[in-house]
Amino acid sequence: MASIEERLDRLESHETIRKLVARYAIGADRKNDPAIMGALFHEDAFWEAPGFSSFRGRDAISAGLAEIAQSQIFWSLHYMVSPYIDIEQSGDRASCHWYLWELATMAQEQEEAADSWLGGWYESTVERRGPLWAFSRVKLDLRLQGKAAPPWDTKVARSA
Description:
Distance between the termini: 48 Å
Number of helices: 4
Oligomer: single chain
Number of strands: 6
Helix content: 25-40%
Shape: elongated
Strand content: over 45%
């Protein structure tokens, strides 16, 4: 049986990781703000979305995600759904899976920007190094994407 201190540490770790996922959504909805996104990753982290892009290292991740937002995603609203966190026995490493439901206004090839929806899931590894929990690996697996019909009121969406 784990001690009260160990049990409390696991509960606090779960909550910290849930907040990490929530801050990821906030950063993503602020055009992948590098100040927010960079703080979520360890220095040697890896981020990937197969068939789309990948980045190695905190600085490359925050700069690469910001570039994607500036050039391709004009507005977004990320729903991070049902984070499932499994902390390893050591207490300093966890796997975290959550679903993505995203509304976005995105650039289109040779067309005007389109209101779109995307869905999929994230698989991540989170590690506590010293007192800091941060992502060491994030993989986005997009499974569906489509244009919104009818499109939403972009005046409202873009002013948010």
